[in-house]
Each structure stands twice: as C-alpha cells, then as structure tokens.
Amino acid sequence: MQFEDLQAFVTVARLRSFSAAAGSLRVAQSSLSKRVQRLEHHFGVALLKRHARGVALTGPGTVLLARAERLIAELEDVERDVRGVLQQAAGTVRLALPPATSPALAPRIFEQCELLHPGIRLQLRESTTDNIHGWLTEGEVDIALMYNPEYGVNFEIHPLILEPLFVIAPALDRGTGERASHPDTYSLRDLATLPLILPRRPHSIRVLVERLCAAEGIHPNILYEIDSIRSTRGIVERGLGCTLFSRTWLSEAIEAGRLCAIPFSSALVNWKLCVAQTRREDASVTIGTVRRLVEANVAELFADGFWHDARWIGDASEH
After folding, report:
1. What structural domains and CATH numbers belong to the chain?
2. For 207, what's the count of Cα atoms within 13 Å in the CB-facing half-sphere?
3. Residue 312 CB contacts under 8 Å (≥ 6 apart), including other chains
C-alpha cells in the first residue's frame, strides 16, 4: 500500500468526485482512478461506489476513510516535527510570567532551554495579566502565562489550569486576638457586605468580581484598592478586610495560621491560567518550541501539586 494511493482515496472520498479530487491534487483523473483501483485491489474490496453524480463510500470505504484521515494527519505532524528539528530553533524569545508563578517556573524553563535548545535566547518579564496583555497586543512579548486573558487578534490562547478562588480572611479577630469565626462557605451575594480589598481594574480578579456581582444585581463592598498581593496579604492579616485569591500563592500564611481561605458555594468563582503565543510567523518554530517548554513545565508543576484545588483543562497529552 502506497501513501499516494491512500491520499488519493481520502481526497476522492471527501469531495465525492474523481474530477474534483483530480483538480484538487492537480493530477490527471485517469491517474487518480488507477491509484484508487490499486488500493481496492490491495484490500480486495470495493471502497467507492461510482454513480452519475460522483461517488459514495461503501462500508469498508467508510472504515478506511476514518482510519486513513487520522493516519495522514499523524504523518503530517511527523513531517512538521522533523522539519522543525532541521530548522534548528534559534533566536530571541520574549517570555512574560505572572510574579507568583515565575519563581517556580522560570528557573526550570531557562535550565531546560539552555540544555535542549542552546540556540534560543530567552528574555523574561514579570507583571500582572493586564500589563502582560498589553505587551502581547503591542507585540512586546512572544509567549505569556496569564489568568483570564482577553482574546486578541495578535495572539492565540490555550487554557491550561482552572483554579478556584477563595475569600481570604484574617485568622484572628482584630478586637479580641482570638481565633476568628468564619462560615464554611460564602455566596456571591456576600460580596455586597464583606469588607473587600481588591486590585484596580483591569486586574482579572477585579473584572471577575464586578461581572459576577452585576449578574447578581449587587455592588461589591470594596474598602481598599491595592494592586500588590503582598501588601494585600499583610493588610488582611491585620484584620482590616478580606480579599479574593487562590490558596496556592498564600499557602504559607494559611498554614501558619495567619490567614483563612473560605470557599465559595458557587463554582463560577475561578480563574483560568492560560498560555498565549504571538502569531509572529517569522519565528514560529522558535516560539513554538518555547511554548511547548512552558506548557510541559506547567503540567509537571501541576502534577506535583503546585496548584492547590486546581483542575487541568489543557491538552490531555500534556498531563
């Protein structure tokens, strides 16, 4: 069985016409017919039924088409991968990571890139999702990890992890110094009365809170606007309010008994960690190589339990 015969059969089967397939493949119709006949002789069954309006699949032809399409797609992937290796990924790739993720992720990515792809030179920037989104839009970075990013024409987005957000509250009562009392869960409507400390727009958590509250017809009770999670953590520990964040980045303070993490009764209070890749065609092989490194290391950290309470939503082959 020859690959050209299989490709000819798939094209005829898809287009339901020998003449249309011959035009698509830019070969003579007689040559195309011979290829399909050779394939039918190989299997010993008719794969196509010829009629006045074109062709139709037989039972064996339907089975072969499904398997052949997957096989051709896999062979095309192999060809792309081999060509990518031959092209030797090289050049500068500008990477952007959120501050909470970068200390755990960046050393792994830099080390593996140096070992496996010495022709690639990485540049790293750290900031919040809103700043990173601006860098991607303006073409200032090539690969980025972001939470709840907005889609843009200059880059493509691939979700990796879904992580719930919690009400982060002080563990001790400010007045008595005793252990503070908190409910088992909070509802979305509680955001109208909780003393909230939140970042300014367009931070992804602020946008999420305002969207969820608008759907409930309530206004969030925001006492302070603070963009730094480190400062917010300290102020919450002092009992001056509470915030919304994931447990991952505050686990040390929670385990030490300085903060409490109370879940929401609604599953809507979550954020997605996504990887974004610029659509720069001039460096697609190199950028794609770094993106795969980022995704692989995020998957490894996830498997190690780095993200508390999270769920993997990326490609199953990555985890």
Report:
1. 3-86 (1.10.10.10), 89-159+275-318 (3.40.190.10), 166-268 (3.40.190.10)
2. 11
3. 160, 161, 299, 302, 318, 319
Residue 57 has φ and ψ, to the nearest 5°, of -80, 140
Tokens 């995704």 found at: 295
Contact of 72 with 10, CB cutoff 8 Å: yes
Q: 181 in helix, strand or coil?
A: coil
pLDDT tens track, the chain, 319 positions: 787 888 888 888 888 888 888 887 788 888 888 888 998 888 888 988 888 788 888 988 888 888 888 887 777 777 666 665 545 677 899 999 988 788 999 999 999 999 989 999 999 999 888 889 889 888 899 999 989 888 777 788 889 999 999 999 999 988 888 898 999 999 999 999 999 999 998 888 999 999 999 999 999 999 999 988 889 999 999 999 999 999 888 888 999 999 999 999 998 999 999 999 887 665 578 888 899 999 999 999 998 888 888 899 886 444 3
